[in-house]
Amino acid sequence: MIEFFKKVSKYLVYVMAGVAMLFAVLSEMLLVTSTSAYTTGTSYTTLIVVVGLISVVLFGLMSKLLIFISYRISNSLFLRKSGMLYPFPIQFYEFQAVVYAFLICGLLVCGVVHLPALFLPSLARILSAVRTLVLWGTLVLIVRYFLKHYAHDYDKKSLAYSLIILPLIFLVVSLVLTLVEVLR
Q: In whole angstroms, what is the distance from residue 105 CA to residue 41 CA?
């Protein structure tokens, strides 16, 4: 699957990531769209189509931006932590293909996990917490894949540190927000 993402057009990959993200947050998107349609007096079907298309484009571009920023941060942390001037062992296009391969599958699983919230809204908070755990499990699998396939004996600790520091910061923030949401 990773080879597929290396060969296919990058714009198609961005659209696939946008669609997967839209599916992962489908219940929230439908809720916000229905509320907006009701308060503005707009047709719900028209608004859902427009919001869906704009969301796919924005989610795709946002994923591209976040992957680029995380690659640059990981690259600079790796060079600083290793203390040597040898390059980051992962090229950007390989990094992007691996992240998208895992991320699109993980977002689809997140959407399936959160799908019962469409029919049983009372489960939305609990299913959101489960969805967050699935998403972070996907990020753990991405880091594990990179360490297994791209780390060498001399740079394993530096690569692990550079790949884990950014998701760890996001994990702490999202876990705090998830706990607050579930306990509220």
A: 37
Contact 81, 35 (CB under 8 A): no
Long-range CB contact pairs, 70-77, < 8 A, 24+: 70/166, 71/95, 71/96, 73/162, 73/165, 73/166, 74/162, 74/163, 74/165, 74/166, 75/162, 77/161, 77/162, 77/165
For the chain (184 residues), the mean pLDDT of every run of 10, in chain order, is 85 94 91 90 90 93 89 80 69 89 93 91 87 88 84 70 75 75 69
SS3 at position 83: coil
Q: How far apart are CA 124 and CA 118, in angstroms?
A: 8
Chain Cα centroid distance, residue 103? 6
CB 58 within 8 Å of CB 142? no
The CA-atom distances, in angstroms, between 90 and each of 79, 96, 101, 107, 177 are 12, 10, 15, 23, 32
- Contact present, 90 and 163 (Cβ < 8 Å): no
Tally Cβ neighbours within 10 Å of residue 135.
20
Q: Strand runs (DSSP E) across 26-153, as ranges? A: none
